[in-house]
Amino acid sequence: AYVKLLTQLFGDRAIIGNATGCSSIYGGNLPTTPYSTRSDGRGPAWSNSLFEDAAEFAYGMRLAADKYAEYAVELAGRIISSESCSKELKDLLSKAMAEDQSDQSGIEIQRKRISDIKKMLVECDCLDCKEFMSVADYLIKRSVWGLGGDGWAYDIGYGGLDHVLASGRNINMLVLDTEVYSNTGGQASKSTPMGAVAKFAASGKPIGKKDLSLMALSYGYVYVAKVAMGADPMQTLKAFLEAEAYEGPSIILAYSHCIAHGYDTIKGCDAQKKAVNSGHWPLFRYNPDLCAKGNNPLKLDSKAPSIKLEDYIYNENRYAVLKKSDPERAKMLLDKAQKLVTDNFELYKYLSERKIVSCGVEKNEEKA
Fold it and tell me: Are the CB atoms for 110 and 140 separated by under 8 Å?
């Protein structure tokens, strides 16, 4: 559903680097697929990379697009200053260089303008016009996404993910977090929560889940959102729109129910609601653009926990199995996990309420 939403919102201009795993298998499969073209045939460009380097793979797409766009701007400048090219072509190029593509209408206007420019380029014999024809489309905004699961983002691919977020480039990361290595047998990972049973954690994971969102938030200039479509679809929609509009790195962590959780996944949306209502998965959006307006960039979209953690976790077999096999240990881990969840929510609440002086919104503008 998250990938389908991405396609519906930005598919006409999206370039996606997908980690090999669950998301590439169900995402690149047929006859059902979350990817589609719109009525005029425009749709996302998709390719899957190795499991561990989806972030770097998508980053390469971003760098290439940026370099081609840079070259297009250079050629356009030479054409505009040329005496051999028509005034009509120069005027269109000047408008294309200045077009605001912050919304869909601006992008569609730019597409039409570039189409008209390419028709005029054919009629011009200068070498710059011939060369510009090959890169003209890069003056149209592209939306680059790195996509994968928690095994990639939290563990084996985290180094690359962190590097890409720290780059300051306009690239988006979507993490489909099932909280377990779903595609490789269901072993414990840094995303597995405390008390959950998994391979290599048969007696329940004794330590807490890695807070990837808080780590990304610490940069200050990265857009960060935590979403759960089953709990709050409107908040999810806002996060996707804000992340794509933000001119810098962004990461969305999306709670994804999975067959490895041990329940009928037709009830997945109910599980997502319980995860949010218990405080296990707090919903928030951190938008650095708000700093420029003097506002706190962190908006906590979740209300205070309304149910106990046990009312959420014991609906899932990955927790309930330990309660049956070792009730004493299960109780001990539940108490620790409940305190962890409560403290974590209070931390995000504190951050969302504090007065912000500066949040590091100066992004890295250095070009590779």
Answer: yes
